[in-house]
Design brief:
The chain has a single domain, classed as Immunoglobulin-like, CATH 2.60.40.420. It is built from no helices and seven strands. The structure holds copper (II) ion (CU).
Length: 97
């Protein structure tokens, strides 16, 4: 199985410095304050998503290389998510008050 496609997807908060995800197959867990807008940026050369594991949760939608999506996380907690295209791309996002 080729895992070389899924290298870089970054999450950041508007007004804050963007934190780049290390070139691994997984997303990096970060904590964010609730009600901040989190920017998901695809810095890879393949299409990816950041999709909550829980149905009805957040979803960046399909992001082309270089594309970004804004997601708002209002609920406090720890949420697992994945890439819809690559099941092995998994991550956790923490939302705090
Ligand atoms: Cu992917």
């Amino acid at each position: 199985m080729s895992r070389q496609c899924c290298k870089r997807l970054s999450l950041g908060v508007i007004g804050h410095r963007e934190r780049s995800v290390a070139p691994t197959i997984a997303y990096t867990p970060h904590a964010y304050e609730a009600d901040r807008t989190v920017v998901v940026t695809n810095k890879d050369s393949s299409e990816h998503t950041a999709t909550a594991d829980t149905p009805g949760g957040f979803d960046s939608g399909a992001l082309q290389p270089g594309q970004a999506a804004h997601i708002k996380l209002s609920q406090v907690g720890t949420f697992a998510y994945h890439c819809s295209f690559h099941a092995f791309m998994r991550g956790v996002i923490k939302v705090v008050r």
